[in-house]
Amino acid sequence: MWSKHGVLYILTNERYAGNELFRKSYRTDAIPFRKVDNRGEKSQIYAEATHEAIVPFQTFQLVQKLLQKRKEQFGKQQQGAFYPLSGKITCGLCGGTYYRRLTSQGTSWVCENHLASRCPAKGMGEKEILSTIQRFLHRLEEHRDSILSPYLAQLETLWQKERSLRPSVLRLQQSIAALLSQSHTLAQLRAQECVDSDFFVSQNNQLQKELENLRQQLKREQGQTNLVEKLQSTRFLLNTLGAPLPDEFSPTLFQSVITGITAQPEGMVFHLVNGLSFAEPIGGFHHG
Fold first, then answer.
1. How far apart are CA 207 and CA 183, in angstroms?
2. Does residue 43 have a pLDDT over 80?
3. What is the DSSP letter of 33?
4. Long-range pairs for 61-69 at CB < 8 Å and ≥24 separation?
5. Going along 139-281, which residue ranges are E strands?
6. CA angle, corner 58, sides to 52 and 63, nearest 5?
7. Strand pairing class (124-125; 20-22)
8. pLDDT at 277 over 60
9. I want to staple 194 with a disulfide (CB 3.0 to 4.6 A). Which of 17, 141, 189, 281 is the partner?
10. What is the C-alpha to C-alpha distance for residues 249 and 278, in angstroms, rounded to an integer?
11. 90-128, pLDDT tens digit by residue?
12. Which of 8-12, 157-161, 274-278 reaches the highest mean pLDDT?
C-alpha cells in the first residue's frame, strides 16, 4: 500500500519526470567532513530528459504549482525563512517567479525557470534589488506632487460620479474605504514599530479577510474594479511619502507600498498598491 509520504516523494522528485538535478548535497571542506543538503551554497545543474519518465513532465509541473499554491494557503511559515521579496518578483520574459538563491558570489534572486534552461533571464543580486527599490521610492517621494496628486484629483472626480450609483454599492464602497484606512494605519504603526510583528500579522490577516468578502460582494453588485480602493491607496501613498523615508530598505514600507515587481532585461517595473506601475531603468523611472 502506498503511503502519502511515498506518493509525495515521487510527485516532488524530478527524477520520476525524466530529469536530473545534480549536486543536491555536498561534503564540507572542514574536519569533521559532513554530507549536507545544498541549499544554494554550491552551484547546481538541472538536466532534462536524462532518462525515461514515469510521471509525464506536464503532470509533474502541474503538481508543483498545486503544491506551491497549497503551501501558500495552508503551510506554516518557518521562523526566519521569510524574505520581503519572496513571491514579489515576476519574470517579464516567461512569467515565472523569482526565488532566493545563495551562491559563492553572494545572495541573488533567480527565475524559477532559469536553471532548467527554460528562461534566459539572468539572476539579480539582492543588494542591487534593494538599492533599486530604495532609489525608486526616493524618486517617487520627490515627484509625488506632480504624479500622485493629479491622479488623486482624477479619482476624486470619478468618485463623485460614483455616488450616484445604487445605495448598496455606495455602502459597500464606504465599508471598504473604512477597512482600507484601518489597514493603512496599521501598516504605519508597524513601520514606526508602535506594534509588534505578531499583533500586526494577526490584525492584518483579519482585515484582509474582511476586505476580500466585501470586494466579492461589490463585484457581484457592480461587476467592475472598485474605484474606492485606488482612491484610498493613493491617499495612503501621498501620506506615507510625505514623511521622511528611511535611508535603508524597510520591509514594512516596501510591502505596504509595492504589491509586486516585474523583472525586465532593462530594469524593473514596480506595481504600486493604487494600481499605478513605474519602470526603473538605470538613471530614472517612467510611468507605465
1. 7
2. no
3. P
4. 63/11, 63/12, 64/12, 67/11, 67/12
5. 258-264, 267-272, 277-280
6. 110
7. unpaired
8. yes
9. 189
10. 18
11. 999 999 999 998 877 789 999 988 877 788 888 889 999
12. 274-278
Q: How is residue 40 written as a grid cell?
A: 544554494
Q: Is residue 288 very low, low, confident or very high in pLDDT (cuts 50, 70, 90)?
A: very low
* pTM of the full structure: 0.55
**Which H/E stretch holds residue 35?**
strand 35-37
CA atoms within 13 A on the CB side of 18: 13
Q: Do 210 and 179 touch, CB atoms closer than 8 A?
A: yes
Q: State the residue for C-alpha cell 499605478.
A: 276
**Looking at per-residue confidence, does 148 or 201 come out higher?**
148
**167-191 and 227-242 are packed helices; what angle lies between their axes, rounded to 10 degrees?**
30
Taking the C-alpha atoms of residue 51 and residue 71, their distance in angstroms, rounded to an integer, is 29
User: What does the alpha-carbon distance between residue 163 and residue 177 come to, in Å, rounded to a whole number?
Assistant: 14
In sequence order, which residues have a C-beta less than 8 Å from that of residue 251 and are 6 or more positions away?
84
Lowest mean pLDDT among 9-18, 72-81, 254-263: 72-81
Closest CA to 249 of 81, 110, 83: 83
Cell (9 digits) for 214: 466585501
The x, y and z cell numbers of residue 120, run together, are 534566459
Give the Cα separation of 260 and 255 in Å (integer).
9
For the chain, what is the largest distance between any 2 Cα atoms, rounded to a whole number of angstroms?
76
SS3 of the chain: helix, strand, coil, percent, to 5: 50, 15, 35
**Are the C-beta atoms of 226 and 216 separated by less than 8 Å?**
no
CA distance linking residue 168 with residue 288, whole number of Å: 34
Respond yes or no on whether the N-terminal peptide bond of residue 32 is cis (omega within 30° of 0): yes
- Report the 10 Å Cβ neighbour count for 11: 16
